[in-house]
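Re: weekly structure request thread

Next one in the queue (301 aa):
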Amino acid sequence: MTINSSATPVASTSNSVRFEQRMNKSLYSKRKFYNVLGLIFAVLAMGFGLVWLGWILFDLLRKGMEAMLTMPIFTVDTPPPNTMGGLRNAIVGSIMIAGTGLFIGAPIGLMAGVYLAEFSQGSWLGKATRFLNDILLSAPSIVIGLFVFTLMVNNRSFSGWAGAIALALIIIPVVVRSTETMLNLVPNQLREASYALGAPKWKVVTSVTMSAAKSGLITGVLLGFARITGETAPLLFTALNNRFFSWDMGSAMANLPMTIYQFAAAPDDTQNMIAWGGALLITFSVLGLNIIARIVGREKK
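Done, posted below.
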C-alpha cells in the first residue's frame, strides 16, 4: 500500500510535464489571439447597438414627454390638422382591439400547447400542428393582415373585429410555443407520482403539470400580448383608423399604431407631436408588460 501511494504523485507529475512538452504553444497562442479578437468585436458590437438604442430612447422620452405635458393626450380625441388634440379614441380603440385579440388567441394557444406537450405523443396530428404553428410563428404580420383582409374586409368594411382576429392569429403561435416549452420542463416524476395515486390524465394535466408551469404560462401570454400591442401592419388592412370616438367593433376603429403611422408622416407639427406621445405610450405599455412577465417568471424560482 505504501509503495502504491508514493508512486501515484510521481506518475501524475511525469504525465503533467510530458503534456506541457507536447503542447503546441504556437497553436495555443493563435487560439488565444482569436479569442481576444472575438471578444473585442463582441464588445464593440454591443456598444454600437447600445449607443443607438440609448439615442432612440432619449429622443422618444424627450419628444414624447413634451407631448404629454403640453397636450390633452388622455381626454381629447385625435384632432384635424393644425389644432390641438389627444389620443383618447386611439387609446380606447387599441385596448378594445388588443384585448379582444388576447381573449380570442390566448385560450386557443394554451389549449394547442397543452395538446402538443401532453397528448400528441408523436402523432401525425401533433406533427402537423407543430409544423403549422412554426409557419404561423415566422409569417410576417403584414401577410396575416392581408389574409384577414381577404376573409373579413374585402367587399365589406374595415372593422375592429377584423383587427382583433388578425392580432389573435399573431398571438396564438407565441402562446403555443411558450406553453409547450414550459410544460415540457415539468419533471416526469410529478406525472408518474400522480398516476401512481390513481389520478386520471385530465386531472394530472390540469392540477399538476399546468399548476407547476403556471408562472411560465402566464409569462408566455404576457409576452404575446406585449407583441401585439405595437403591431401596425395587420391593422392597416383590417381596423384601419377612425378620427372619432367609437365603441362599435363592427366599423373602422381608432388605434395607437395606425394613428402614429399616419400622424408621423403628416406635414402638421401638432400631429407629429401627438405621434411621439402615442409612441411613448406604447413603449411604456410594452415595457410594463415585460417587467410584469419577468416578475411572474421570477416568482417561479
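Residues 42 and 48 are 10 Å apart (CA to CA). The chain has a mean pLDDT of 87.
Next request, please.
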